[in-house]
What we know:
By secondary structure, the protein is of the alpha+beta class.
Amino acid sequence: MRKEDSSAETYERSERFYHSERGWYFTVRQGAAFGPYESRQNAEKNLHSFVSLLINN
């Protein structure tokens, strides 16, 4: 907990990657899903690219 946080709230983590009949997807905090990708590894690579793009802009 950060010292500036006023309460001891707990947050539930959800799985960022999921699979459907169309392929693999990743989700972001805003609720958007990206995909489909042929494999989980491809989804992971694209998530890393997405985060890098956000950080560098």
